[in-house]
Amino acid sequence: MMRGEVTHISEVLDELEAICQEASGVPMRRSRAVVDRTDMLVLLDELRGMLPAELTEAESVHRECGAVIAGAEEEARRIVENARERAESLVLSTEPYRRAQQDAEEVVERAERYAEEVAGGAEAYRDRILGQLEDWFQDSLASIDESRRELNNAALRQPVRYDPSSDEDTGEGWRASSA
Predict the structure, then answer these.
(1) What is the pTM of this model?
(2) Residues 73, 81: contact at Cβ < 8 Å?
């Protein structure tokens, strides 16, 4: 690209900037402006026309490289997957693997038995605690019922009477009497 072309590109960019700076703003949107679409498109076409052909070739090479890389990554993924499958099939046929598999099955079996024991103990504990709670609530209800009966009997024995001499605008004229 020659020096004159770079200068011209710089001038077109300055003109684009000026169009944006001088554009009238959109109400209630500080960062938005209204520009003349035709002016902008003409300047953008002019810039595109000034770009060197090498840039278009570079874009094409870049796309080709991307395709080659994607193909290579797919091939690498396939190779790794095949290697993993082969390694797995080799490991499955070894004696240490079979022993480890048997040991793992025994550990799982012991863990399941232990879990059943724990579950049974938890169930018995839950039933015991709920039984104690039920007894406590029944005792509390009986105590409440007994207290209610005592309070009702006490209220029946002591009638409440109004004594106007002790009222004196204080509202304390009501008193229980033993008569």
Answers:
(1) 0.31
(2) no
